[in-house]
């Protein structure tokens, strides 16, 4: 199951990126409702990472803390979030969050097609549904803030 361990590590990395990206987005938006949405998704990603780590990996593997990709320098679609934050433009922040979510959806979709064990497949599938819902909600919020 070495391949499965690598897939799980990649998913945890993706979740940590999302957790940090949403946290930064929450700190950068003006709209209190958007702030609440981003805080909620940041906490969701943290829960998902803990869940994957605790249920899908052996005790030895749980010992190693995965801190997110590139030592905290977000990638996988979250790269431009910092520039959107400095502009303080809620629409631009939502667009970058959607881009990050595109990557998460892609990563989870790939994982589901890689022959995971049944318990891990079920967990990843359940998380994927919620990540897809978050993606669609962020996209909808982005579209609602489009400048005319």
Summarize the structure.
The chain has 148 residues and is mainly alpha-helical. It has helices spanning 2-28, 32-56, 59-63, 81-87, 90-112, 118-144.
What does this structure look like?
This protein is mainly α and 148 residues long. The protein has one domain: Up-down Bundle (Ferritin). The chain is 77% helix and 0% strand. It contains 6 helices and no strands. The chain has helices at 2-28, 32-56, 59-63, 81-87, 90-112, 118-144. The radius of gyration is 15 Å and the shape is elongated. It starts with a helix and ends with a helix.
Task: For the structure shown, list the relevant keywords.
Ferritin, mainly alpha, about 150 residues, elongated
List the helices and strands and how they pair.
Layout lengths: L1 H27 L3 H25 L2 H5 L17 H7 L2 H23 L5 H27 L4
Helix pairs in contact: 1-2, 1-4, 1-5, 2-6, 4-5, 5-6
Identify the CATH architecture: Up-down Bundle
Rg of Cα set = 15 Å
* DSSP strand tally: 0
The CATH superfamily title = Ferritin, core subunit, four-helix bundle
Bin the helical content.
over 70%
Largest sheet composition: none
Distance between the termini: 51 Å
Q: State the domain count.
A: 1
Low-confidence blocks of residues: 61-73
The coarse silhouette is elongated
- CATH-defined fold name: Ferritin
Alpha-beta content class: mainly alpha
Strand content: under 5%
Average residue pLDDT: 83
CATH class: Mainly Alpha
């Amino acid at each position: 199951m070495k391949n499965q361990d690598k897939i799980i590590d990649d998913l945890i990395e993706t979740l940590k990126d999302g957790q940090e990206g949403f946290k930064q987005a929450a700190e950068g938006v003006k709209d209190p409702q958007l702030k609440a949405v981003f805080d909620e998704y940041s906490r969701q990603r943290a829960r998902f990472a803990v869940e994957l780590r605790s249920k899908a990996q052996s005790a030895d593997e749980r010992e190693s803390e995965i801190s997110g990709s590139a030592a905290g320098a977000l990638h996988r679609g979250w790269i431009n979030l910092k520039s959107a934050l400095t502009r303080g433009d809620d629409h631009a922040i939502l667009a970058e969050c959607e881009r990050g979510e595109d990557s998460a959806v892609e990563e989870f979709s790939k994982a589901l097609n890689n022959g995971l064990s049944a318990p891990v497949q079920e967990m990843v599938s359940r998380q994927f549904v919620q990540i897809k819902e978050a993606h669609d909600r962020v996209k909808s919020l982005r579209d609602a803030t489009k400048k005319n």
